[in-house]
Design goal:
The protein is 39% helix and 12% strand. With 439 residues, it is an alpha/beta fold. The protein has two domains: 195 residues, Periplasmic binding protein-like II (D-Maltodextrin-Binding Protein, domain 2), CATH 3.40.190.10; 203 residues, 3-Layer(aba) Sandwich (D-Maltodextrin-Binding Protein, domain 2). The strands form three sheets. Strands 1, 2, 3, 4, 7, 11 and 12 form a seven-stranded mixed beta sheet that branches. It has a three-stranded antiparallel beta sheet with strand order 9-8-10, with helices on one face. Strands 5-6 form a two-stranded antiparallel sheet.
């Protein structure tokens, strides 16, 4: 039985960070790691973009590998979710940077992960480092399986600031104002929205983010939590309403560059690039805090691009997500534990936050504003903490669902929705509901 505790609204700064540093010595003595011998290699599987992962590996080489008695390397894979399951079952998984706590629960429930307790890690210290809630997302049957490594704000709408300002546009503060801005852009001869949902084996996940963001703004956090815990069915009227509001944007004949039917074929990292054409090929792009890692290298935050929070509809809402580093049964080794302790420490996390090509928010509170690549990342962490303080922020629902749904039928269902049009949504939600695993 999965034991994922619901979010405490009082959680604020602890989610973004740590109160004390991890054991940075990383002596690799093997305590709690089964006494296994050091193999000299640590493989870390990631769903990240290859360019982003290249930056991570450079930092790991300089700050970890340079004085460790092993070599650690992150491997980028567009099939990471599927590969993690294959390797975990085969016992060949060292570390997986899992973006879906639901998948973590599935792997742990199948006996294919090593608990942090079995690795000899101090869960109480991790809760001080990252907050009890974030650590609890990797808890299954009283054992803990995930070390938080990053967090990202998803409720962001990006725009080409220089052209936006020159056109006389202003940031909308309500959903209706955002639609009115979209209409004005159309009237001025432009296309409002840049959208792309292609992500290799994970195609469709950016569309699920839209639904989740809208659910928080229409149904509220309580119903949102009932949705991902399956206390209400996937085809509940609240979910249908959110999907239809999403469709009102996507299927508007003039709103989306290339049209909704082509969004599953457009790579999500390439989707915002037309914003930087002269004149802009599109003007608005809803995506998480990491997306500016995909922007052209010569663009400057606050000059060439900026962002505003996705506006409220019936109420406020903030969507966020993050990764948990999990260890396969084959990774119960001293060098794996040593890498995790070094990777989550303040100095490495600060370095990861300081490169614009990685564009991640650290879950370590010691990683202050000065560590971030630009003010946009620092500001996005403030929006997140404000949402947590107000009790309107929710973790990515698809990442909390069973992987057969959250990383399966929900993704493919949104692809079908884009290709088949607005009238298909009721049948699609029925199909997703039927795919929910039996209790």
């Amino acid at each position: 039985m999965r034991m994922l505790r619901l979010m405490a609204p009082a959680l604020v700064l602890v989610l973004i960070g740590a109160a004390c540093a991890a054991d940075e010595d990383g002596d690799g003595d093997g305590d709690g790691a089964g006494g296994a011998e050091n193999t000299g290699q640590v493989n870390i599987l990631s769903a990240g973009d290859p360019g982003e992962v290249e930056i991570y590996n450079g930092i790991i080489d300089e700050m970890i590998n340079a004085d460790a008695d092993y070599t650690a390397e992150i491997e980028a894979s567009g099939e990471a979710e599927q590969q993690s399951q294959i390797r975990a079952e085969a016992g060949t998984l060292d570390i997986f940077l899992a973006p879906q706590p639901g998948l973590v629960a599935d792997l742990a429930g199948a006996g294919q992960l090593t608990s942090l307790e079995d690795l000899g890690m101090d869960v109480g210290q991790l809760e001080e480092l990252f907050g009890e809630y974030f650590v609890s997302l990797g808890e299954v049957d009283g054992q803990h399986y995930g070390v938080p490594t990053n967090i990202n704000l998803k409720s962001m709408v990006w725009y080409p600031k220089d052209d936006f300002d020159a056109a006389g546009y202003t940031e909308p503060e309500t959903w209706d104002e955002m639609l009115a801005l979209s209409d004005q852009i159309v009237a001025d001869g432009g296309t409002p929205w840049c959208v792309g949902f292609q992500s290799e084996g994970s195609t469709g996940w950016p569309a699920t983010d839209w639904i989740e963001d809208i659910m928080l703004r229409t149904a509220g956090l309580d119903v949102y939590e009932q949705w991902y815990t399956h206390e209400i069915p996937f085809n509940d009227p609240a979910v249908l309403n959110a999907a239809q509001i999403f469709g009102d944007v996507m299927f508007h004949p003039d709103y989306v560059l290339g049209g909704a039917e082509n969004t599953p074929s457009l790579q999500f990292g390439e989707a915002p690039l037309p914003m930087f054409e002269d004149p802009p090929g599109c003007w608005l792009h809803r995506q998480a805090s990491f997306i500016n890692a995909f922007f052209p290298e010569d663009t400057e935050a606050g000059v060439d691009y900026d962002w505003f929070p996705l506006p409220p509809i019936d109420q406020e809402g903030t969507l966020f997500a993050g990764e948990l580093a999990v260890v396969g049964t084959g990774g119960n080794r001293p060098e794996v534990r040593d890498f995790l302790e070094r990777f989550m420490a303040e100095d490495v996390q600060c370095a990861l936050s300081g490169d614009p090509a990685s564009s991640r928010i650290s879950p370590n509170i010691n990683v202050g504003p000065d560590c971030y690549a630009n003010d946009i990342l620092a500001e996005s962490s403030t929006v997140l903490t404000d949402g947590l303080a107000a009790g309107t922020a929710g973790f990515d629902a698809s990442d909390l669902m069973p992987s057969a749904v959250g990383a399966g039928s929900f993704w493919t269902g949104m692809v079908d929705y884009m290709r088949n049009g607005p009238d298909s949504i009721e049948g699609i939600l029925d199909e997703i509901e039927s795919s929910w695993p039996a209790e």
